[in-house]
Amino acid sequence: MKVPIQRDEYTIDVDYWHELEDGRIQCDLCPRFCKLHDGQRGLCFVRGRLGDTMVLTTYGRSSGYCVDPIEKKPLNHFLPGTPVLSFGTAGCNLACKYCQNWDISKSREIDTLADEASPGAIARAAEALDCKSVAYTYNDPVIFHEYAIDVARACHEKGIKSVAVTAGYVTAEPRAEFYRHMDAANIDLKAFTEEFYHKLTGGHLKPVLETLEYVKHETDTWLEITTLLIPGHNDSDQELDDMTRWVVEALGPDVPIHFTAFHPDWKMMDVPPTPAETLTRARRIAMDNGVRYAYTGNVHDEEGGSTYCHGCGKKIIGRDWYVITAWHLTGDGKCEFCGTECAGVFQGPPGRWGARRLPVRLRDFAA
After folding, report:
1. 175, 208 contact by CB (below 8 A)
2. What are the DSSP calls for 125-145, one per residue?
């Protein structure tokens, strides 16, 4: 359907597109390669054609801002215990039938973007709130590529780090530009079969694996992985075995994996919630295959949420939900008991933010 695009103060011209011989223009940001006539938008809904160019219609606007614990992203090995200023926009370049944030990612309503802020205002807010990082989350930052990068630049000028929470569905050139500005990323590895990606997300597995390998081996971005386990769809022993073996072989044993629990949502209300024992089983399979840091999420499981030294086996970071209950790392990130290094980004003692969630109005930080 043709959706008119009105240029306004929030609409900017963007890169990563080219003209086609039939008069359409093709968006080259992600592997969907949407081909558009004038006035049409891509599947993400926020990038579209206006005249003879491509535009981003959500620059400078957000679906909301909130200070979260960094562990909620989830990132367990990146500045533990610290607060992160989180925000997203609207839209998404995947079509997951089970989307847990569908009210944001599937939004077609401009009212979703009621809160607005320049990159500078976000950086000032993060500094004033003593946040060590800013997270691009709630919907996928791939689709607001230019806005995320500009925010990251403004934050880096103040010594504030940037975190991407993403499905990793992006093409090579914009991927390289994006991750030059990201200090950490949690990338969804939604499943380990092409069938799952095709039927339940409308995407493909291969580009995600390429993003994971690129981030791990070609950047300095700290990487963690999340897999939402959906009963009967991606939780078999065989698939979990195949996936975690690939992670160790392709990415190495030090990349943390978070297995999180599904709850019925969006277009999969008929699927039951994930039993806690499924997450425990997935964690055990991962550890048996050599993953050093495997976690359970969205359930109360202090053992599954804590970090253990791969040298001596002792608990070195205790976690109860988002609260740190034990800390046995030296200032340079080594086990206090045996001296084995724990992979991650650590800066001295952990923060004390805990499980608090603090909504923020960015208009209070306007220039």
Report:
1. no
2. HHHHTT-SEEEE-SS-GGGGH
Cα–Cα distance for residue pair 65/361, rounded to 1 Å: 7
H/E element, 346: none
Q: By C-alpha distance, which of 20, 23, 29 is closest to 55?
A: 29
Provide the residue type at 98 as one letter: Y
Residue written as token pair 């629990």: 261
Which positions ≥6 away from 248 have C-beta within 8 Å? 289, 290, 291
Helix/strand/coil for 324: strand
29-64 pLDDT, tens digit each:
999 999 999 999 999 999 999 999 999 999 998 888
Residue with tokens 């614990």: 69
pLDDT in tens, 190-244: 999 999 999 999 999 999 999 999 999 999 999 999 999 999 999 999 999 999 9
> Token digits for 170?
């992006």
Domains of the chain, with CATH numbers?
A: 12-56 (no CATH), 64-359 (3.20.20.70)
